[in-house]
Amino acid sequence: MTTDKVNYGTIIKNGIFGENPVFRLALSLCPAVAVTSGVKNGFLMGVAVLFVMTMVNGTVSLLRNFISPKVRIPSYMFIIATWVTVTDLVMAAYARDVYKQMGLYIMLIVAFAIVLSRAEMFASKNKLIPSMVDGAAMGMGFLLALVLLGVFRESLGKGSLWGYKFVETKPLLIMIMPTGGFFAMGLMMGWLNWVDRKFFGGTGASSGGH
Amino acid sequence: MKDMVKITLSLVAIFIAAALIMGVTYKFTSPIRFYAEKKEKEEALKEMAPDAKDPIAVAGKWTVHGKSFEYYAATTEKKPVGYIASTAGKGYSSFIQMLVSIDTGLKVKEIKILHHGETPGLGDQVEEKGFLNQFTGKTLNQIVLVKTETKENIQAISGATISSRAVTNGVKDAVQTLVDKYGSGFTRAAANEVKK
């Protein structure tokens, strides 16, 4: 925990590009494969994650001196579960139309590695505002990754985008199956690493290990 | 020892606070949700039988998967124009709840999925019109799920066979019930009541 001035630009850039949850940290790949068979699904899931991550990071940051380090994981899990449940209940009551679209995804967020990972790696060591910014930036990174995968898979697998057909051919069905999800993920990760190495002089490799 | 007490207290405090937050949220949101769902159900029923002039009344209850469901008779000036049953099928990760309507000729008119918790992107494709419209005009014996292209039966969605089967079975159960009750007028229904 540093008292220096926090650079929000760096945090945001880090969340979206430098440590993109899906393509760089390789976390939460399971939902990334499961929901990206369409752009719409990916987008809605991304929005839900963005909200939950921001709130969880904020709460964990506020309670960081209160939570005993030895039991931090169950504490974080409970904070995540609380926010997810509250989101689910409130949306079910006040935003019926959105809930009908997104209801399926909200409960899944409890199990996302990326939410727990950011609570542990960032929010537990930083102040409230930077933590919330980090949560939002990571959520943005996740959202972006899901939309990218969704565009790739839906256009090849269904010949449509956001449910609207743009070609009338027999599509490459395998792309919307889980198998195709892994193909898409690998290709996308490889391509982004290549871009990074070629144009930005990065090391390229996905860091994994986190 | 002192550490142990501290850890326990901090955990308990977090759990109680979380439980309170969830409880209060539930208390305030559940009535709103309940009325919203009730209203949606009424509207859904009306959509299922647009040609019924009388208010749609519950005609009886039936059971599937150990749960109780209702069926309704849609009437215009006391004459039946169709029958509706609420039903459910056991899918991949949830019960898919539906409304099924048949016309007086006992052919399926419309299917409406009310609620489900299937996998987004795969199982939730059963909500698409392309799949549900296959049921329209089918008789009880035609409601069979197959994996190849078909005009006679119901074609499963690739990647969502279990969810497709759940919908098909749910519809079949509901139509079976309605046919049993209304098959050849009310005499047959009465006979069935006696048999049971």
Summarize the structure in words.
The complex is a heterodimer of chains A (210) and B (196). With 210 residues, chain A is mainly alpha-helical. Chain A contains eight helices and two strands; from the N terminus they run αααααααββα. In chain A, a hairpin with a 2-residue loop joins strand 1 and strand 2. In chain A, helix 1 packs parallel to helix 7, helix 3 crosses helix 4 and helix 3 packs antiparallel against helix 7. Chain A is globular, with a radius of gyration of 18 Å. The two termini of chain A are 19 Å apart. By secondary structure, chain B is an alpha+beta fold. Chain B contains four helices and seven strands, in the order αβββββαββαα. In chain B, strands 1-2-3-4-5 form a five-stranded antiparallel sheet. In chain B, strands 6-7 form a two-stranded parallel sheet. Chain B starts with a helix and ends with a helix. At the A-B interface, helix 4 and helix 5 of A face helix 1 of B.
Which range best describes the helical content of chain A: under 10%, 10-25%, 25-40%, 40-55%, 55-70% or over 70%?
A: 55-70%
Mass-distribution shape of chain B:
globular
Order of helices and strands of chain B: HEEEEEHEEHH
Q: Largest interface by residue count? A: A-B, 32 and 29 residues
The fraction of residues assigned to DSSP E strands of chain B is 25-35%
Low-confidence stretches of chain B: 186-196
Largest sheet of chain A: 2 strands, antiparallel
How far apart the termini of chain B lie comes to 66 Å
Mean pLDDT of chain A: 84
- N-to-C order of helices and strands of chain A: HHHHHHHEEH
Mean pLDDT of chain B equals 85
Oligomer: heterodimer
What radius of gyration of chain B results from the CA coordinates? Answer: 22 Å
Outline type of chain A: globular
Strand order of the largest sheet of chain B: 1-2-3-4-5
